[in-house]
């Protein structure tokens, strides 16, 4: 077990190093972006001394290999530097934006699981029924319907048409809270929830189908195993067979999928944030792209990689906990 | 290579394909998908015949946000009008000295020769009738050119006389003495034009001012000549005037903010989406097959390296990475396709690798190796044919994924600015006020088009998967 862990960690560090290097190469070596353009546009009247100071501040005066070594050191000590645009540390900029994104995608994920899992179980237990076919259909739809389109249509209906017909917006079309925000903390929370409702709802509509289909397929797979036949032969009720025997064995793959979709929390809502003007990581990344603020871009991509690796590891370990068969295999 | 397509082989493949079709034609969902795909391919192939307009370069076809023509079947929209282009040729109303020398096709010639020092007024008119509801936008164009001017001061004035006799000045240029060519466009949205007519009311709705009265309208063109000597001359050519009353409704799917035909953009989007989807899927699947087979068959270092590459790719968020690359290296549709393909093969490579691993251990591979077959030969002749069905199913599903990625890129404003994709239509709609104007005819169609083409491939892929993937085969 320990050997396995150590090997995993070494490989993970190697992958992180490759990704950090890739980021460096993409954004700083072959990139056509000139950082100077970004932090002091040439149209702006900036004295050469100021320009020089800024170059010094951002560490652009060193040779490339020195810059690379410093960069790698910084990345592995989680020091992402300073944003070119706002001139504030990346970490604090990210901390400001993380809550909105995590709230948005976290609640969407929880809601998707809450809606999708029971639907998948029901569909699997009544294979071939109308519900089953509807579940397959909704799962296939999520493959082909862009979520951003659902959001656009939702926005058109609930914000703009509602406003035309009834004189008010059913859901607000932009922002995380009203301006000015309500003073009372409870009212503020309610306000945020109201603003989050449409983005979260549309994300769930766009995602529950594939979740239900996945649960269904995993459960169906389990239901054809020999031990289910045994359980039925023992005379256990269908309910017990389904929930105590079959569903239990679907937990590992389901938990894995949950763990693997956690990294998506940081970047998965880019388009949602763009559409609903939510001040999250995705918006931040897009502004960074448009203004050539590459410390932002590097930090987001690197954080995503770290999250992926950590979540993968957690998923593997959980797999062992949830599935005794694998635990044995690992010890061996 | 020729032996790869020998007669026996061909027969075997034909039989395989026929068997496959036998199974495929029994899946309803697969046939639906195939039908949809054929529809899209037909639209893509027949685009120039389905719409007369070019998707990018178009003249002003109607007013901004013109609704589709067919909305006029509903009573509340029944009085909306289509675009009317009126060409007005000039008739002589008052010509004391017989200056008009006749028309040259689409223009009128005027030959002025002073006999005395009296000023001369030449009046031309042209009439049209208008009885619809007032338009939101219109523009009027004409041109004049003078040559051989000598010792004369002249002026050109254009007025519109409404059926009730109100007079609005469209154009007035006086004090001209030399040769001059002038193109005149008067646009109801032009703030200078509005200011010239209504100095105190910027943003006045000129369509409502001019065209609320039903009946016969007259454009009156007045030319004044003031000779300075006895041998003053001037020669003028005045083109026909063109009045375009832009419609409230236009075409099958209306017009967007830029007054472009939406149906044309939707139709031409099919070619691009199919091309983008197929190219990205073919390139990505080829990489996946290559990496999977080589790493699975060779094992060792090759396997280790390629699986680490897969691990690394799995740690990169696809959309943000694509955005960054496209932003840095150019918003070019070929780059977009290439990037989507390069970063989209890792899942397939893993599947192919595991399949190859199990095929490698089979007896017939042993036999082939024992009879002296090389690694390349075995991979090409024995392994790849066996993984083709799985790879094909995966390729079919890679098409919608590539299309969705491209539309997401375009929607975020990182698409190729030269090509009219559906994602870019949605981006324009989002950014140019389609929502506030409730222009559903601009927002709904491109999305439906994307969904349709993706569902076609998803359905086909689903049917494929049921056939080639033994685990999913219906347990009867």
Task: Tell me about this structure.
The complex is a heterodimer of chains A (332) and B (476). Chain A has 332 residues and is an all-alpha fold. Chain A has helices at residues 2-29, 35-39, 48-57, 64-76, 90-125, 130-144, 147-166, 185-223, 226-233, 238-261, 264-267, 270-276, 281-291, 294-322, 324-331. Helix content of chain A is 77%, strand content 0%. The longest helix of chain A has 39 residues, at 185-223. Chain B is α+β, with helices and mostly antiparallel strands. In chain B, strands 1, 3, 4, 6, 9, 11 and 12 form a 7-stranded antiparallel sheet that branches. A 5-stranded antiparallel sheet of chain B has the order 2-5-10-7-8, with no helix packed on it.
The percent range for strand residues of chain B is: 15-25%
**Which whole number gives the mean pLDDT of chain B?**
88
DSSP strand count of chain B: 12
Q: Name the CATH superfamily assignment of the largest domain in chain B.
A: MetI-like
Catalogue the unreliable spans of chain B: none
Mean pLDDT of chain A: 85
Measured between the Cα atoms of the first and last residue of chain B, the distance is 42 Å
Layout of helices and strands:
The complex is a heterodimer of chains A (332) and B (476).
Chain A: H1 2-29, H2 35-39, H3 48-57, H4 64-76, H5 90-125, H6 130-144, H7 147-166, H8 185-223, H9 226-233, H10 238-261, H11 264-267, H12 270-276, H13 281-291, H14 294-322, H15 324-331
Helix pairs in contact in A: 1-4, 1-14, 5-6, 5-8, 6-8, 7-8, 8-10, 9-10, 10-14, 12-13, 13-14, 14-15
Chain B: H1 7-24, H2 28-45, H3 47-50, E1 84-88, E2 91-94, E3 100-103, E4 107-113, E5 120-130, E6 137-150, E7 152-161, E8 167-176, E9 180-187, H4 191-197, H5 206-210, E10 215-227, E11 233-239, E12 241-246, H6 262-298, H7 300-314, H8 318-329, H9 333-342, H10 346-360, H11 363-370, H12 375-411, H13 422-431, H14 440-468
Helix pairs in contact in B: 2-6, 2-14, 6-7, 6-9, 6-10, 6-12, 6-14, 7-10, 8-9, 10-12, 12-13, 12-14, 13-14
């Amino acid at each position: 077990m320990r050997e396995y862990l150590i090997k995993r960690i070494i490989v993970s560090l190697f992958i992180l190093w490759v990704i950090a290097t890739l980021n460096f190469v993409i954004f700083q070596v072959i990139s056509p972006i000139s950082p100077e353009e970004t932090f002091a546009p040439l149209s702006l009247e900036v004295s050469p001394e100021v320009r020089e100071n800024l170059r010094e501040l951002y560490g652009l005066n060193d040779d490339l290999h020195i810059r690379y070594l410093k960069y790698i050191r910084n990345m592995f000590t989680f020091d992402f530097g300073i944003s070119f645009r706002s001139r504030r540390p990346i970490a604090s900029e990210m901390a400001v934006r993380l809550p909105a994104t995590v709230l948005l995608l976290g609640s969407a994920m929880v809601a998707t699981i809450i809606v999708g899992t029971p639907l998948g179980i029901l569909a699997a237990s009544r294979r071939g029924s109308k519900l089953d076919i509807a579940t397959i259909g909704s799962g296939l739809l999520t493959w082909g319907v862009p979520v951003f389109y659902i959001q656009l249509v939702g926005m058109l209906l609930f914000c703009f048409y509602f406003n035309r017909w009834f004189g008010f917006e059913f859901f607000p079309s932009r922002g995380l809270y009203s301006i000015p925000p309500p003073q009372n903390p409870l009212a503020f929370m309610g306000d945020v929830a109201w603003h989050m409702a449409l983005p979260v709802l549309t994300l769930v509509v766009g995602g529950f189908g594939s979740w239900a289909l996945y649960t269904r397929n995993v459960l169906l797979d389990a239901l054809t195993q020999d031990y289910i036949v045994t359980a039925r032969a023992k005379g256990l009720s269908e309910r017990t067979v389904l929930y105590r025997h079959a569903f239990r064995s679907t937990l590992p793959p389901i938990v894995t999928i949950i763990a693997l979709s956690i990294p998506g929390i940081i970047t998965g809502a880019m388009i949602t944030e763009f559409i609903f003007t939510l001040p999250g990581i995705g918006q931040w990344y897009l502004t960074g792209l448009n203004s050539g603020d590459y410390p932002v871009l590097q930090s987001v991509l690197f954080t995503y990689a770290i999250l992926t690796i950590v979540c993968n590891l957690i998923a593997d370990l959980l797999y062992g906990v949830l599935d005794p068969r694998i635990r044995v295999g690992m010890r061996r | 290579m020729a032996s790869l397509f020998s007669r026996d082989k061909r027969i075997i493949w034909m039989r395989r394909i026929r068997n496959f079709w036998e199974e495929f034609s029994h899946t309803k969902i697969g046939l639906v998908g195939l039908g949809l795909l054929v529809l899209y391919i037909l639209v893509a192939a027949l685009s120039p015949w389905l719409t007369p307009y070019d998707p990018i370069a178009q003249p002003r076809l109607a007013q901004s946000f013109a609704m589709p023509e067919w909305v006029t079947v509903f009573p509340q929209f029944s009085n909306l009008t289509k675009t009317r282009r009126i060409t007005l040729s000039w008739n002589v109303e008052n010509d004391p000295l017989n200056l008009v020398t006749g028309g040259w096709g689409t223009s009128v010639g005027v030959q002025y020769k002073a006999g005395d020092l009296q000023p001369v007024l030449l009046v031309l008119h042209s009439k049209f009738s208008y009885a619809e509801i007032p338009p939101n936008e219109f523009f009027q164009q004409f041109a004049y050119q003078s040559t051989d001017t000598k010792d004369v001061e002249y002026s050109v004035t254009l007025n519109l006389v409404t059926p009730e006799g109100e007079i609005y000045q469209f154009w007035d240029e006086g004090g001209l003495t030399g040769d001059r060519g002038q193109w005149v466009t008067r646009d109801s949205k032009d703030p200078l034009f509005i200011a010239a007519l209504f100095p105190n009311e910027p943003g006045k709705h000129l369509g409502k001012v001019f065209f609320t009265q039903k009946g016969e309208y007259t454009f009156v063109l007045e030319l004044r000549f003031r000779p300075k000597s006895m041998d003053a001359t001037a020669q003028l050519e005045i083109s026909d005037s063109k009045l375009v009353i832009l419609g409230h409704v236009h075409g099958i799917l209306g017009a967007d903010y830029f007054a472009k035909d939406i149906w044309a953009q939707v139709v031409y989007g099919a070619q691009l989406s199919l091309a983008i989807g197929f190219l990205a899927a073919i390139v990505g699947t080829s990489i996946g097959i290559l990496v999977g087979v080589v790493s699975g068959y060779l094992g060792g270092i090759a396997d280790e390296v390629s699986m680490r590459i897969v691990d690394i790719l799995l740690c990169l968020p696809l959309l943000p990475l694509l955005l960054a690359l496209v932003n840095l290296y150019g918003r070019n549709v070929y780059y977009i396709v290439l990037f989507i393909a390069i970063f989209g093969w890792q899942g397939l490579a893993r599947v192919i690798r595991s399949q190859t691993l199990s095929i490698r251990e089979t007896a017939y591979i042993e036999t082939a190796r024992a009879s002296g077959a090389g690694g390349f030969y075995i991979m090409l002749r024995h392994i790849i044919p066996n993984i083709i069905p799985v790879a094909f199913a995966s390729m079919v599903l890679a098409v919608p994924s590539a299309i969705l990625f491209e539309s997401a890129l375009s929607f975020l404003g990182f698409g190729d600015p030269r090509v009219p994709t559906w994602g870019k239509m949605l981006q324009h709609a989002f950014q140019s006020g389609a929502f506030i104007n409730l222009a559903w005819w601009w927002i709904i169609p491109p999305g439906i088009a994307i969904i349709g083409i993706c569902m076609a491939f998803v359905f086909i892929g689903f049917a494929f998967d049921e056939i080639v993937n033994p685990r999913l085969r219906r347990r009867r």
